Amino acid sequence: MKYLVVLLITCILFAGGCASFQEEQTQATLSISPAGTIPMVDETIILKKKVAIGRFTNETRLANSFLNEGSGTQEKMSKAATDILSAKLAMSKRYILIERQDNLAIDNEQKISNIASYKIPADYLILGSISEFGRNTSGNVGFVDRTKKQTAYAKVTIRIVDTSNGMVIFGEEGVGEASSEVGTVLGMGSQAGYDESLTDKAIDAAISGVIQNLMNKLSHDPWRSYVLSLEGNEAYISGGTIQGIAKGDTFKVYQRGKKVMNPQTNVAVELPGTQIATIRVVETIPGTELTEISKAEVILGSIPATDLSNIYISDK
C-alpha cells in the first residue's frame, strides 16, 4: 500500500509539472517613464511630413565593455533599435521616412553643431540612444521540477530635432522589459539556451513606450513646404501627391519672422512668421519623395520673388 501511495503522489506531481512546464512561455511587460503626455491628434492625417532617422547610439556599459570588442554587440543593438523605430513610424503611414545613418552629436546647448552642413532633406531628424541595457537569469530547483527564467531590460532616449535650426524640440525616455521562462519535470520539458531575441523584445518594448507621444508631437507641429520658383502669379512648391497634396488644396504663405537671441540660453529664436499670401494648387507634378513638386496660383496677396529663402508654406 505504501508503494501505491508514493506512486500516486509521484504521478500527480509529474502530471501537474508537465501541465505547467511542457511549453516555453514568453511574455513581455512594459514600464513607461514619459517626460510629459502630449494630447492625441486627429487620426485623419492628410499631409505627410518628411522625417529623417539617425542611427541609434549605444551608451550602455555592456556594448562599450572591452569584453565585447570585436563582437559587434554595439552595432547590432544600434541597428536593431533603428530598425524597430523605423518600422513603427512606417506602419503609421503618416510620414515620409528618410534614413540617415550619421552619428550626429548634440552639444550642451541642445543644438546640433553645424546642422546645415549635413544637408538633411527632411523637416525633422529623430535621434536615439540606448542608455541602459541588462540581462539576468534566475531559476528554481524543486524536488521533481526545475525552472529557468531569462529577463532583458532596456532604456532608450529619443529626441526630435528641427533641421531648420538644430534645436531639440522633443525628448523622452522609455523603458521596457522582456522575459522568457521554461521548465522541466523529472528531466522532461523544454531546455532553454541563451535567448538572443529578448534583446530586441526589450528594446521594442522601450520604444513602444514613447512612440505615441513622439508621433503626437510630430503631428501637432504645422506641415511646411517651400516655394522653389515664382513665375508671375504661379508658384512651384516642394511636395506633391506622395506627401498628400492634391489639386484644389489651398495653403497659406508666410514670411519668416526675424531671429532674436535669447540672453538666458544664448540661443537664437525665430519669431512667428507673417502671412503674406494664399495659394491654390492647380497641378501636381510626379516625382520621388524628394523630387516631386506642385504648381500653384496666388489667389490672395503677393509673394516677393527676391527672397524666396525666407518664405514658407503651411497648412495652418
Give descriptors for this structure.
2 domains, 8-stranded mixed β-sheet, 316 residues, Thrombin, subunit H, 7-stranded antiparallel β-sheet, alpha+beta, 4 helices, Rossmann fold, single chain
Chart the SSEs and their pairings.
Layout: H1 2-21, E1 25-31, E2 49-53, E3 57-58, H2 61-64, H3 73-92, E4 95-99, E5 124-141, E6 145-162, E7 167-185, E8 188-189, H4 197-220, E9 224-225, E10 227-231, E11 234-238, E12 250-255, E13 259-262, E14 267-270, E15 274-285, E16 293-301, E17 311-314
Helix pairs in contact: 3-4
Can you describe this structure?
By secondary structure, the protein is α+β, with helices and mostly antiparallel strands. It has two domains: 24-220, 3-Layer(aba) Sandwich (Rossmann fold); 224-314, Thrombin, subunit H, CATH 2.40.10. It has helices at 2-21, 61-64, 73-92, 197-220, and strands at residues 25-31, 49-53, 57-58, 95-99, 124-141, 145-162, 167-185, 188-189, 224-225, 227-231, 234-238, 250-255, 259-262, 267-270, 274-285, 293-301, 311-314. A hairpin with a 3-residue loop joins strand 5 and strand 6 (145-162).
